[in-house]
Write a structure and sequence with these properties.
The chain is of the alpha/beta class. The protein has 5 helices and 8 strands, in the order αββαβαβαββββα. The chain is 37% helix and 25% strand.
Length: 151
């Protein structure tokens, strides 16, 4: 199992730079759990790609490494994770929209040295970040739907 995870992490490190790279690695053991690796910035279309790649998978571990990106895409991927009953794990860092995907896991894992970052949603106006109330309200509703309260 550790050897498989090591090979998967090497493949994961070679991911591309445009949008998130999403790879499904199935275990050679028929009873083994597949790994779904999501790496990179979340952009429009990533949720649809994620849903296509996980189609038919009922049990898996989603391994995350992302600085975040599109809130809409992150919440949609998170909804797919929760609907499919998948577990989530942070590979190294998972921030912004990625953190909401991590929260969506039915089981959530991270280890020493892993980083998970949360912040308010914002958009860039004249080169400056400006909070967006609509996106933050959407995030609040999503977290409530997951059963997470303010604390």
């Amino acid at each position: 199992m550790r050897a498989l995870l090591s090979v998967c992490l090497v493949l994961f490190a070679a991911a591309g730079a445009w949008g998130a790279e999403i790879n499904v690695v199935r275990s050679p053991d028929p009873k083994g759990v597949p790994f779904i690796f999501l790496r990179g910035e979340l952009v429009q279309g990533d949720a649809l790609e994620f849903e296509k790649k996980i189609h038919g998978i009922k049990r898996a571990l989603v391994v995350l490494s992302s600085p975040g990106g599109s809130v809409t895409e992150g919440l949609a991927i998170g909804a797919a994770v929760r609907t499919q009953g998948l577990a989530t794990m942070v590979a190294d860092e998972c921030a912004s929209a990625c953190a909401f995907i991590w929260l969506s896991g039915v089981r959530r894992y991270f280890g020493e040295g892993m980083k998970i970052g949360f912040h308010a949603a914002y958009r860039i106006v004249d080169g400056q970040p400006v909070e967006t109330g609509m996106a933050n309200a959407e995030i609040g509703a999503y977290l409530a739907h997951l059963g997470l309260n303010r604390e």
